[in-house]
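pasting for ref
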Amino acid sequence: MQHVWNKVVQIVPLWIAPNMLTFCGFLLILINYLLMSFYDWDYTASGIGSQHIPNWIWISAALGNFLAYALDSIDGKHARRTQSSSPLGELFDHGLDSWTASIFPLSLFSIFGSNSGEAGLTPMKMYLVSSVVLFTFMLAHWEKYNTGVLFLPWAYDISQVSMTLVYILTAAVGVDTFHKPVIPHVYMTDLLITFLVGCSLLIAFPQTLYNIFIAYRGKTLLKSSVYEGLLPLFSPSVLFLLLTLWVVYSPCNILDRQPRLFLWMVGVLFSNVTCRVIICQMSNTRSEVFHWLLWPLALVVGLAVSRYLGTVEELVFLSITVCATVAHIHYGVCVGKQLSEHFHIYIFSLKKREII
């Protein structure tokens, strides 16, 4: 696909800032997600006997997904073309990618419906699939933290094209088609989960370990010990453990009651943790041991599973979801502002700041 994007980037006006391309791509994905949320808040609209999502939503999702993929593929090329590459652009690109990595599957889940029997995706399956996707994304930046090289497997291109084709197929044949087995006792959801888990466990994870081993053998590893190399994985692991405990032992079955919001919170928290790792690998600094957002989350999860929250568990969950989202946006804005001032550039403009 690279030769295609090399041609496409040539038609982008030179006055457009690369970060604007990145941000527009993110907005397209976010708009798709918000549209899906409006028509299918609890992931039941595609279920058997439910009021289905309008067909134009799937067409919009296909178009938005492909355009976002295109913009994400050419923003770096456009930055080099305009000689405006910078650490700010790298962080802006990968930081938004860490968020969209969680939004992609949340939109795709609306195709199957959680109330479609064997053909559907239960909230627990959605949670596990989302975790696998986020884990795979995190691996790429953990690898760069240790080797200094960001390797993007070809599975990324395949996944983006596949999602676009699935949206087009849904618009053409309708969601009821996915309620029927592809072959006896095997549904499209089974193929989706197999594909995602297979790409992670059989492609991304082994490739990451291999690349780190090659760097170790070539004595080019950036970290001096196993402990230092594994530091970026500590906070994501604790985060996954806490969230899984909440999902499994929640007295009010919080994941089943609020599947969309819970998965949104998962994505926001993982994105914030990943952004901090990205900054560490960009600046070649030591990764933090324990992300500060894990402290309030641990407190809430502890109170919830111990049944101390009682009937207000859902209200507390809503509160921590809002706080986590606001904290993540605030963090991104502050870091972007600091970097733009440090490098005397603007986020959404190619103009240079005046040095005072």
